[in-house]
Structure formats: C-alpha cells, structure tokens
Design a protein that fits this description.
single chain; 4Fe4S_Fe-S-bd; binds iron/sulfur cluster; two-stranded antiparallel sheet; 2 helices; alpha+beta; 4Fe4S_Fe_S_CS; Alpha-Beta Plaits
Length: 53
Amino acid sequence: MKVCEWCMYCGECAGVCPNNAIEVCESSLRFDKKKCNECEFCIKVCPINALSR
Ligand code: SF4
Ligand code: SF4
C-alpha cells in the first residue's frame, strides 16, 4: 500500500481494516504486509484518497 504526502493521519483506514494491518503513528502509517489480504477497504474509506496499491 502506498501513502501519499497529503495523508493527515486521521486513522480512518486503520479503523476499517479487518486484519489490523495498519498502524497509525504521529506522522507515518505502517502496513503489515503479512496481515493484509488486499480487501482495499482502507483505500475506499480514506476521505482524501491518500492510499493506492
Ligand atoms: S484514512 Fe487516509 S488520510 Fe486518514 S490516515 Fe488513512 S490514508 Fe491517511
Ligand atoms: S487492503 Fe484491507 S487488509 Fe489490507 S491494509 Fe487495507 S483494509 Fe487492511
């Protein structure tokens, strides 16, 4: 998953991830590739389209 520079670290994406694969820190997002099943819920929920594959 790629995060664009306009991400505001709101945590919406982490909140919908069914596998807890996203950790939101103060100024970064961490993706655990092993947990991700590529459902793309995080991409769809981001209010500013900051995520892409
Ligand atoms: S939902 Fe979008 S803006 Fe919010 S933390 Fe996730 S990627 Fe960043
Ligand atoms: S694609 Fe699905 S499983 Fe992977 S990080 Fe996004 S919400 Fe979580």
